[in-house]
């Protein structure tokens, strides 16, 4: 017996909707196998990983805080990926956004008007967009592969941040710890509710989702993204410029990654440290695909992946296993998401092997 | 079969190396090969002659095992054989050199050859063998050269040497000279002579009449999937070959007598040249063309002679610095992109339906926006810079087009890929005609389209010109060109001949020009 993939005449709307759920189901199955192999009771392990974090108000706040950067970046990447451009360097754009956004509170700490916070957000978006413009330019000008260049720039950005907080931007009153000075009131994204630390970054993420959804679903700009992503030759026929598109989607996804960076730094951490993100920029790639490159889907997927971070921490405490298990889940999930997408364009066919004469 | 009978046959007449008996191949409703028969003897160069779409490639793909026939027999040295795969064809003794090469650019000559020969060969021996074979047959090659650094002619040598290393008795060459310079072609002919002298046979696919006359011992002529003639090319004239190739039956003329001197010049090309963008692309060489309102100019020619490059230059998908090279309705637009040219009154239908004229996984209404977002911005786009698509207007226009062009589909607004070729083409034509363009450029309007839809599309084109628009139809189907054109030009090797009145030009003359022979 042989398994063949047969191309469908038209893409399956049924599997298009179902594939993220198939992927989630298969990830759970993989989780059961993984926990069993580690000698744990899979039911308890999965409970403390995926359910327990949702039972307390405090951890729900944490969920929102972690989902915020994932959704912000995921929305940008979903637009970028829809156009056939592969920005893998959102992590670096997040870092450079955070750095640019921190110029005001670190270099001019005495400034405290109402304009400071909006200014910080704008500068962060500019910083992220500027960093993302580099791979876009290299692709348009020299045909350099944007996957490689955007990825490599992540490490440059991370080392730049490290150098800053250990050097010029180190807090003069910080006992030589590699940290910047702490942000003060007017420089911090305020908390939304009295019940916990979730900040207004979540509102920014929600607005972004709605604007991006409207753009992709209703406007000619979103249409351009789809056409160029699906059929570049037809895009040229329609008079759309693939190069302008590459630059535009890199600027958008970079700006949103930058916004995620400043919302994390100004909202959650409230200072710059050598490491400010547990890999949100990379996890957001999974978020974008799990959300079927649709901004609304990204919102749901962002919450699910945020849960995998929380679950990793929870499992570390209650089960005594490494929080790297969370990263394993993320990787397995991405694998199954991409694999399940095959079902949209192909059907599985079982055929008997015929013997050759 | 009794051995004796073979012997007697052998005595009277040698068994041909290859005999094809009444082979048939259907793709859906299209009969690509209709009971085709031919014989190739040992040491013979046999030409397979025909227009594009005549069924030449289908036939040789069946001989090489990449397609399976629906009926008929292939007989190899007197025995019926089934050729299930290219590797089986090679072990039988049939080799093929494709028109488009299958070589890895980043690997060397020897590595590329080793890949196709299997594991038992040492790569060093292969390099030495390849050098030997290439010297023996006058195809100089360095085994360690990287393919990416080679010219197209050299790459073809690699393909031929690779084919020869498998020691085939029959070699199939698909349009081998279409990518070669005249000097390279002459070298190739010398190689072919040597192969013939060794007793190998060659099945030579071409549409170039001079080559066929010069080289080939026999020719089988295909037209619309059927064998329409067999001959010894040396005994024929170029014109009689051209006649056989393009046929003599004239299609029904549905156009009125309104002639080419009807209107003003609305489309003008002035000495437009364009270098080839890739090794397989064709260079455009100083093209001049004037099209008047109210006429159809047909551009005939065999595929790959510059038609798609010509289309891109007309549509604005390729722009140039020579702004006055292209003029629409009296305005220079050589540097203007396709949207700008649409706004000037142009409409375009590309050869490739899925992926060029339409996006496969987008709905028909989205595919309407694809071509008309710029020219009909006032109808389909609102809210200025935000650019919201007016779904209602788009859908109702889509519906009107589908009704007018009789587009048969399942559901209200299916994906473009869900439609049959003919229905999608009717939609695409309707999308452009619905705008009432003053200039329409169509490449292959009825390629792979069933007869009914083809008639509908041709009539729509003629009706458009009668309402005062100018139309350029690029087509490889000469029947179609003859049926709808007021004037006819021929594209050959990147040149466009001076258009002549359709009543004044004969099929024979067109065939000669298509074969690269001007004025006999």
Summarize the structure.
Chain A is mainly α and 357 residues long.
Mean pLDDT of chain B: 85
Sheet with the most strands of chain B? 7 strands, mixed
Please identify, by name, the CATH architecture of chain A. Answer: Orthogonal Bundle
Work out the largest interface and the residue count of each chain: A-B, 20 and 36 residues
Mean pLDDT across the residues of chain A is 91
| Helical amount of chain A | 55-70%
Q: Under CATH, the topology of chain A is which?
A: ABC transporter involved in vitamin B12 uptake, BtuC
- The SS-based structural class of chain A is mainly alpha
Strand content of chain B: 15-25%
For the record, give the distance between the C-alpha atoms at the N and C termini of chain A, rounded to a whole number. Answer: 18 Å
Shape of chain A: globular
Strand order in the largest sheet of chain A: 1-2
Give the total of domains of chain A.
1
Q: Any idea of the CATH class of chain A?
A: Mainly Alpha
Outline the secondary-structure elements.
The complex is a heterodimer of chains A (357) and B (520).
Chain A (H helix, E strand, L loop, with lengths): L1 E6 L5 H25 L4 H10 L5 H26 L7 H12 L1 H5 L8 H27 L3 H21 L34 H18 L1 H11 L1 H6 L4 H28 L10 H11 L4 H24 L5 H22 E6 L6
Chain B lengths: L2 H10 L5 E10 L2 E11 L4 E5 L6 H8 L7 E6 L2 E3 L4 H7 L1 E4 L11 H9 L5 H14 L15 H14 L4 E5 L7 H16 L3 E6 L2 H7 L2 E6 L2 E6 L6 H9 L18 E10 L9 E9 L3 E5 L6 H9 L10 E3 L2 E2 L5 H6 L2 E4 L14 H9 L4 H4 E2 L5 E2 L1 H14 L16 H13 L5 E5 L7 H16 L3 E5 L3 H7 L2 E6 L2 E2 L3 E2 L5 H8 L6
Parallel strand pairs in B: 3-8, 3-9, 6-7, 7-8, 13-20, 13-21, 16-19, 19-20
Antiparallel strand pairs in B: 1-2, 1-4, 4-5, 9-10, 11-12, 11-14, 14-15, 17-18, 21-22, 21-23
């Amino acid at each position: 017996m042989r398994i063949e993939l047969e191309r469908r005449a038209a893409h399956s709307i049924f599997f298009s909707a179902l594939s993220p759920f198939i992927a989630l189901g298969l990830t759970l199955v993989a989780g059961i196998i993984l926990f069993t192999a580690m000698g744990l009771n899979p039911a308890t392990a999965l409970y403390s990983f995926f359910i327990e974090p949702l039972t307390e108000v405090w951890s729900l706040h944490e969920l929102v805080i972690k989902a915020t950067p994932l959704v912000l970046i995921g929305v940008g990447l979903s637009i970028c990926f829809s156009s056939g451009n592969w920005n893998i360097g959102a992590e670096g754009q997040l870092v450079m956004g955070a750095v640019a956004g921190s110029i005001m509170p670190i270099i001019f700490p005495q400034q405290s008007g109402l304009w400071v916070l909006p200014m910080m957000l704008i500068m962060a978006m500019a910083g992220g967009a500027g960093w993302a413009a580099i791979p876009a330019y290299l692709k348009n000008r020299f045909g350099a592969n944007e996957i490689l260049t955007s990825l490599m720039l992540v490490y440059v950005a991370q080392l730049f941040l490290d150098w800053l907080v250990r050097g010029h931007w180190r807090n003069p009153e910080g006992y030589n710890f590699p940290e910047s000075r702490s942000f003060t009131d007017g420089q911090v994204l305020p908390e939304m509710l009295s019940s916990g630390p979730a900040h207004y970054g979540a509102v920014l993420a929600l607005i972004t989702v709605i604007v991006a959804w409207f753009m992709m679903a209703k406007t000619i700009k979103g249409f351009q993204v789809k056409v160029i992503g699906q059929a570049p030759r037809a895009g040229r026929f329609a008079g759309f410029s693939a190069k302008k598109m590459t630059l535009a989607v890199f600027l958008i996804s970079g700006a949103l990654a930058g916004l995620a960076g400043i919302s994390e730094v100004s909202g959650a951490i409230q200072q710059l440290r050598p490491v400010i993100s547990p890999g949100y920029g990379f996890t957001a790639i999974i978020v974008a695909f799990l959300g079927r490159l649709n901004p609304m889907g990204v919102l749901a997927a962002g919450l699910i992946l945020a849960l995998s971070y929380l679950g990793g921490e929870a499992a570390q405490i209650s089960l005594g296993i490494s929080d790297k298990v969370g990263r394993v889940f993320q990787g397995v999930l991405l694998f199954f998401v991409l694999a399940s997408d095959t079902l949209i364009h192909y059907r599985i066919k079982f055929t008997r092997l015929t013997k050759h004469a | 079969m009794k051995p004796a009978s073979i012997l007697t046959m052998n005595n009277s007449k040698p068994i041909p190396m290859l005999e094809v008996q009444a082979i048939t191949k259907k793709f859906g409703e299209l009969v690509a090969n209709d009971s085709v028969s031919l014989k190739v003897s040992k040491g013979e160069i046999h030409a397979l002659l025909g227009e594009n779409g005549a069924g030449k490639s289908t036939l040789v793909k069946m001989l090489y095992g990449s397609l399976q026939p629906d009926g008929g027999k292939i007989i190899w040295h007197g025995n019926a054989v089934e050729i299930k795969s290219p590797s089986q064809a090679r072990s039988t003794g049939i080799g093929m050199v494709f028109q488009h090469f299958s070589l890895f650019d980043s690997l060397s000559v020897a590595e590329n050859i080793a890949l196709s020969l299997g594991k038992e060969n040492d790569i060093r021996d292969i390099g030495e063998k390849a050098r030997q074979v290439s010297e023996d047959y006058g195809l100089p090659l360095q085994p360690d050269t990287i393919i990416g650094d080679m010219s197209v002619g050299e790459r073809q040598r690699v393909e031929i040497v690779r084919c020869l290393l498998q020691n085939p008795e029959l070699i199939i060459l698909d349009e081998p000279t279409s990518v070669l310079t005249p000097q390279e072609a002459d070298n190739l002919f010398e190689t072919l002579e040597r192969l013939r002298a060794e007793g190998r046979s060659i099945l030579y696919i071409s549409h170039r009449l001079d080559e066929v006359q010069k080289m080939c011992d026999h020719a089988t002529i295909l037209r619309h999937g059927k064998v329409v003639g067999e001959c010894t090319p040396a005994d024929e004239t170029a014109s009689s070959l051209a006649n056989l190739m393009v046929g003599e039956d004239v299609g029904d003329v549905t156009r009125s007598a309104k002639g080419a001197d009807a209107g003003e010049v609305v489309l003008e090309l002035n000495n437009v040249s364009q270098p080839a963008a890739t090794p397989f692309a064709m260079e455009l060489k100083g093209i001049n063309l004037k099209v008047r309102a109210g006429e159809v100019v047909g551009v005939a020619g065999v595929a790959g002679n510059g038609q798609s490059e010509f289309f891109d230059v007309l549509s604005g998908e390729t722009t140039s610095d020579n702004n006055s090279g292209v003029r629409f309705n009296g305005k220079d637009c050589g540097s203007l992109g396709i949207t700008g040219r649409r706004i000037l009154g142009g409409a375009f239908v590309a050869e490739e339906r899925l992926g060029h004229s339409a996006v496969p996984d987008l709905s028909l209404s989205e595919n309407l926006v694809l071509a008309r977002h710029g020219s009909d911005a006032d109808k389909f786009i609102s809210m200025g810079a935000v650019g919201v698509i007016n779904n209602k207007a788009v859908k109702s226009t889509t519906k009107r087009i589908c009704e007018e062009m009789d587009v048969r589909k399942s559901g209200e607004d299916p994906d473009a890929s869900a439609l049959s070729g003919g229905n999608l083409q009717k939609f695409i034509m309707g999308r452009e005609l619905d705008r009432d363009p003053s200039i329409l450029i169509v490449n292959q309007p009825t390629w792979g389209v069933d007869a009914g839809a083809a008639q509908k599309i041709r009539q729509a084109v003629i009706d458009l010109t009668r309402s005062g628009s100018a139309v350029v139809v690029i087509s490889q189907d000469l029947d179609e060109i003859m049926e709808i054109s007021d004037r006819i030009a021929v594209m050959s090797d990147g040149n466009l001949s001076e258009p002549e009145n359709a009543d004044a030009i004969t099929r024979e003359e067109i065939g000669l020009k298509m074969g690269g022979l001007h004025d006999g």
